[in-house]
Amino acid sequence: MAKTKLIDSFNREHTNLRISVTDQCNFRCIYCMPEDMQFMEDEKIMTFDEIIHLARIAVNLGISKIRLTGGEPLVRRGIPQLISRLRQLDGLKEISLTTNGIGLIKQAKDLYDAGLRRINVSLDTLNEEKFEQMTRRKVLSRVLAGLKEAQRCGFNPIKLNAVAMQGFTNDEIVDLAKFARENSYQLRFIEFMPLDADDIWGRNMFVSGKEIISKINAIYPLERVQSNGEAKHDAAKRYRFTDGRGDVGIIASVTEPFCDQCNRIRLTADGQLRTCLFALAETDLLTPLRTGASDEMIADLIIEAVRNKEPGHKINSADFVKPKRNMSMIGG
Ligand code: SF4
Core-most of 69, 101, 262, 318, by most CB within 10 Å? Predict the structure, then answer.
């Protein structure tokens, strides 16, 4: 049982840690990174021992859920072993992973055998041409094959993360809902956020949560699912298909921010603690760890950072400043 909890000055308790295990990726999604991305030197990236060490300290501070992200986590070797080691952490209740899916063809079974049960796979379009436009890669069929392999291995739920963008995927919203219904995937639409490297984000670029729901509801009637208990901290607002064929979630970060319920903090691949996806400041945990700081000292750094956490993002305010890191260097 955690002695100290990670509570900020707005009385939000933080129990959810996202760990980016690499900034590298085998895709080049236009809403995330530039085509000619410069990756960090290996020595700057946390080793698995360092990830486990910092995760243990965080779990002792009340973190009960860890999500592994990237870049693309499955381009880093040994993720099943890392998951097995994380599962040994007393107090950690849930491990999940966000992936672009192509690594699942080869790794789904090892990940499942290592004890992983929850995965989110990014899938913004079912159209080969648009997929290539958005990811700068011709691999849609391998992502779909990765999804099938994950389902065959027993992953459940498998969530699909779709970024809805005007002029790209806004005409595929119902198709993606149909695909998810027919394959028993849980679809999550994420409003496009200003964390892209190429500065293409604009208010005319994203599709609002309301628009997405009305498009789906017109074809597949939906009803809102009230979130209680732990679920109220979920980023996604859930809507159930009234015919019982699953549900769809909306992560409306821009138009309906949920920062007042935020329980998430992030650790970047180079060991920087970010208290918000849009944080402009970070707390270095890796240098103290590498220079012999005690677990107490590192715990104090985390507690202090959370205590000073910002109230929320400022995307909708005139003084919004875009973070220096793009999405691939934060991990979503
Ligand atoms: S924008 Fe920041 S404060 Fe708001 S929900 Fe996301 S991480 Fe939390």
Answer: 101
